[in-house]
């Protein structure tokens, strides 16, 4: 075995430039695959992190149409409902339009109870609930913009005009790596009281009601019961699971995501072809050597092991380097995306697929050269010396 490993290592670096370029190609392919897969995972992370016991109620026509605040008591009275909260999308601008991050006006106590994945210190939670002008921000958002406890943050309204001032009373963390840590939450009452004075027609309007069912298996019944309450009213409702609600936004760009998924696999196929060509060239150059080894009594399995080992060494080296570069690249790309994709982290599944893809490239690229070496007649191969 040591002889085989020694020959594999020497053969792999016999043509240093070709080997370096081949390894570099595998690195780029594995890295690109990891980035594309991570982008897809992050796109669906909100839906995958959804709770099975939460449902979202919105206007049946469109989420752009508000629901009356009075609906909360009727929803709370529905059998099987444990908690009810509500939220409005704010859509403000922090300093410059490029500084994008999600902003929600919420009912603090009930919303935080329904979303335990927003981990907040008890003292900060109490301060947030107490101060009507308070806000809480995700830790990654705080790190990006330098928000600290007690800071005043001003958002320029786009949906709700004017300058809105908030005091940072809490910095939350996500319960898991996929949890959103880049959002901004503040009091719905603060927004509503201001609207009563400046834009009365917008007052008491709710974007969505978030409902927690007592049991996950009662979600369907609760959803039907809520919608039946408001059937034939001036503002009919559509209640769906939180995951379905999240996926409704993802579906808007489903064609783009499908294209990205296809490209991720095409990249691997392209490098597989390049790798196969490299191994084919290597096999042709070593025809005489393989014939000599056969003449000396080495078994066909020995030749197959030499070729497969070299192919796996090249692919494996590129794959490991690409895998090592994926996390830093994802981190850098996540920073450039701002808060656009919460949960932009490399999953263990993506890492396993990257490793499997590199191994598959090495194995497939070696198949044709192995077959050629095994069927090579000794006499014909030795003529290559002439």
List key phrases describing it:
ten-stranded mixed beta sheet; two-stranded antiparallel ribbon; 386 residues; alpha+beta; 12 strands; 17% strand
Question: Mind sketching the topology for me?
Answer:
Layout: H1 2-12, H2 16-48, E1 54-59, E2 67-68, H3 71-76, E3 81-89, E4 103-106, H4 108-114, E5 118-119, H5 122-130, E6 134-138, H6 139-145, E7 152-157, E8 162-174, E9 184-187, H7 188-198, E10 205-206, E11 208-213, H8 219-229, E12 237-241, H9 242-250, H10 254-285, H11 287-295, H12 300-336, H13 348-375, H14 378-382
Parallel strand pairs: 4-9, 6-8
Antiparallel strand pairs: 1-11, 1-12, 2-10, 3-4, 3-11, 5-8, 6-9, 7-8
Helix pairs in contact: 1-12, 2-9, 2-10, 2-12, 2-13, 10-13, 12-13
Please explain how this structure is put together:
The protein is of the alpha+beta class. The chain is 56% helix and 17% strand. A hairpin with a 4-residue loop joins strand 7 and strand 8. Helix 1 packs across helix 12 (300-336) and helix 10 packs parallel to helix 13 (348-375). It starts with a helix and ends with a helix.
